[in-house]
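Good day; I would like, with your permission, to put a structural problem before you. What I wish to show you is a protein chain and, alongside it, a tokenised description of its three-dimensional fold. Thank you for your consideration; the sequence and its tokens are set out here:
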Amino acid sequence: MHDVLVIGGGNAALCAALMAREAGASVLLLEASPREWRGGNSQHTRNLRCMHDEPQDVLLEAYREEEFWQDLRKVTAGKTSEELARLVIRASATCRPWMRKHGVRFQPSLAGTLHLSRTNAFFMGGGKALVNAYYRSAESLGVEVRYDSPVEALELQDGRFVAAHAGSKRFEAKACVLAAGGFESNREWLREAWGQNERGEWPADNFLIRGTRFNQGVLLKHMMAQGADIIGDPTQAHCVAIDARAPLYDGGIVTRVDAVSLGVMLNRDAVRFYDEGEDFWPKRYAIWGRLVAMQPGQVGYCIIDSKAVGRFMPPVFPGVKADSLPALARALQLDEHRFVQTLDAYNAACRVGQFDHTVLDDCRTEGLTPPKTHWARPIDQPPFFGYALRPGITFTYLGLKTDAQARVYFGSQPSGNLFVAGEMMAGNVLGQGYTAGVGMSIGTAFGRIAGTEAARAALATETAHAIA
């Protein structure tokens, strides 16, 4: 029997396994996917949002605790635990030396990369390199890893972990960390959560999954049935507007279209439906998937002109290109008259000042609903480009209630040896909304806490047995 069992194979799970092993516990990690798909959604990440009081290697200027907290409070509209959020923020300031020790390397952000050079530390080689580094370190330290081992059920006794079941196999341990992700890949659960709208549509049928196909939420649903305390709204998620041509699973970052704030967004009726210039893109990109999900047919269209080209990260698919707005409408199969009418009204409403996409500039619309409050310039310089976008779910926010020790709760009582990290508890910090890189901050902070606490619980049990 191992001291600590870690269920999951992404960033949070690996941080937990490494910390537990460093604390002297024997560790077994069960990953649902085959080896070649290991890493969960973490393999698709790029960076970690980090608090810092002064410039540090790849991080410019300063990004202090209060600013980080206010950024998080704003995007969540206050739907967050301040205690746990500040815990994550403070932990983000001290985790990088530990990450480096386990083989993670950092690099400066590329010029113009969503203006994140002050707030986010980028992984050299991206999330796949981070995941591989952690697996190499874990295996060198003696962490046992088993792939193709999805856990369906836990044996619990009075809120304490006894064993996990993966297929016909039973795994006992003295403590356990749950880090098996959300339910974003479970289409039936998404349909159940989102239901049917007033147009008779099932919105979830048109969702794409940016991340892993292995996050089916089986263990989360099992924990709900076992009476674990739950937090979060099942319809809330890290939900990004991505290219409608993206694959159903594992499209990752390259399927995102980052041009929204540089142009306008239309629905299938060729009508604008939200302020594209509300705030900086890293603080607003993750609201657009949900906004598109509320539109007819769960589709939106990002329209830009040639002035925007080169100002955003190129997506993997090229945009539909046309030399005139009517031709672009026809190419996108949108109503030509309404399309041109919408663009003409927008162009006429633009009050262009000093355009600067790196600040909240004074380029805005006047007398237009919805307004565009920043970066509003007429779309009038051919060629024109359009991207059809669908909601892309990264991870869901419904999860297990926890505390500063990462403990799982049953009837408001914390478990003595069952802990949670990553997407399975992110809803404690993210009630809604998102800001770039904070998912990795949450997973790293709570993965490390959960691993430390699990090792402490396991080794305390061992000591107690030895004394007895």
